[in-house]
Amino acid sequence: MSAFSGDCSDFSGCNLLSRATALHNVELPLVYSGVASKERAERAKKSLAMVELSDRMHHKPNELSGGQRQRVAIALALVNSPSIILADEPTGNLDSQTGVDIMKLFDKLHAEGNTIILVTHERDIAAYAHRIISIRDGKIALDERVKDAPATSAV
Question: How far apart are CA 110 and CA 47, in angstroms?
Answer without folding.
Answer: 16
